[in-house]
Write a structure and sequence with these properties.
Strand content: under 5%
Distance between the termini: 56 Å
Radius of gyration: 25 Å
Shape: globular
Largest sheet: none
Amino acid sequence: MTTMTNTQPISAPTLRHVLHDPVWVKWLLTAIAVGFIILFLCLPLAIVIFEACAKGWDAYWAALSQPDAQAALRLTLLTALATVPLNTVFGLCAAWAITRFEFPGKSLLTTLIDLPFSVSPVISGLIFVLMFGAQGWFGAWLSAHDIKIIFAVPGIMLATLFITFPFVARELIPLMQEMGSEEEEAALSLGASGWQTFIQITLPNIKWALLYGVLLCNARAMGEFGAVSVVSGHIRGLTNTLPLHVEVSYNEYDFVGAFASASILAGLAIVTLILKSVLEWKQGKH
């Protein structure tokens, strides 16, 4: 026995009422979002700039002209200049291997790429101390050959490299998996070399995601504090990056110097956000 039921079509006003929230909900959520942005982003940024310029522009530029501040800025830029290209090469190689080949340990490699996201930066720095410190696994050998890693620039670069290496790979892997390999296989079947295929087919398709990953990697490299703080030794003028210089200046009650250096980092953050928005728009359009 079959029971027939009559279904009434849903009218357009009723459908709109079901699919759309009331207007007051939209405005409430918007107000909450804007309030959080003002409270936790715009207000701290305004305070940093205000405190940096509290004693005038002369004091501001004098604080940034100090030898320690200049050395911290140079070390920060040098660290980013050294780590970002290495992470870019690693990200490209890792994404290519994971998305284009099958091999034993592939899932393990994918998991290891995410390791810096799940480990505290302080723990990451401590790992390098346990490996390369005076009492570490390789400490005696390094001391015998007069090689300094911990409390020196190489340790800072190693810690930053470890913290930032997932960014490029994590931007490329999902995109390359979604792209598939049909275009590359077609190019190879027509006689193109592997390098020609990468330059002419793969790179144009991933360029916006690659630039986005490089941008995030660079921002993290310049702003990293936890891991660098552990391995640097806080040697003024030698191993203090700009974030560490901000901490040292603030602890010594040099508030103008601390906020002036912080304003440089804030400016870099603003530029990063602008470029990030542009790249997201470009990537979405592409």
